[in-house]
Known about the structure:
The protein is of the alpha+beta class. The chain has one domain: q2cbj1_9rhob like domain (Jelly Rolls), CATH 2.60.120. The protein has six helices and eight strands, in the order H-E-H-H-H-H-E-E-E-E-E-E-E-H. It has helices at residues 4-13, 24-40, 48-51, 55-59, 64-74, 215-220, and strands at 15-18, 78-88, 112-118, 129-131, 155-157, 164-168, 173-174, 184-193. The strands form two sheets. Strands 1-6-3-8-2 form a five-stranded antiparallel sheet. A three-stranded antiparallel sheet has the order 5-4-7, with no helix packed on it. The two termini are 20 Å apart. Bound molecules: 2-oxoglutaric acid. The site of 2-oxoglutaric acid has 9 residues, from strand 3 and strand 8.
Amino acid sequence: xxxxxxxxxxxxxxxxxxxxxxxxxxxxxxxxxxxxxxxxxxxxxxxxxxxxxxxxxxxxxxxxxxxxxxxxxxxxxxxxxxxxxxxxxxxxxxxxxxxxxxxxxxxxxxxxxxxxxxxxxxxxxxxxxxxxxxxxxxxxxxxxxxxxxxxxxxxxxxxxxxxxxxxxxxxxxxxxxxxxxxxxxxxxxxxxxxxxxxxxxxxxxxxxxxxxxxxxxxxxxxxxxxxxxxxxxxxxx
Length: 237
Ligand SMILES: O=C(O)CCC(=O)C(=O)O
């Protein structure tokens, strides 16, 4: 699912755009159910603690075009760290740029990867995601002056509904303001090594996440470890 060229590009630049990660009936189902879940839940903090109640969104954590690309980087050591929705109405008040790293630890290889699956056409008016290629190798965070300004080396992610961007969580990136007519919606699936702490581990995940859960799902949820513990762990397992 991740060709050697794609992997090289990702490791070098810190991001990778993948087309048609969701398509056809599945894309339509996800777009429709996104709205149902968003309004059924309280429209805020729509993360794994809510999404796992819904089969469609639970199943997506194992969706091969997403998971196999994570496995291309993390092997069998992959865990889901966080999962949520973003839904921006037209004419929202988001900043045009808000540069940040999701995870500030500069390392020779990716420790975690955020995956954004877009549900709407990402045009300049809709407020595309921006990344600064190569910035995953930088130690520094954006300064107060840089934080809300376009960056001279930035790249805008053009995407159709169902396309995704995989971003090394240490890359400088930014969302943007929705100045288009329709919604700006995305699924944010954040994976990393099994020995990283998942987000919000102080709260129990919904029981539906564990119903008939496979070994793979339990590993993705950080419940089952690939080995007894991390000591002398063999990454080829
Ligand atoms: O919505 C986007 O384009 C980027 C969101 C973002 O910055 C993030 O997930 O950390």
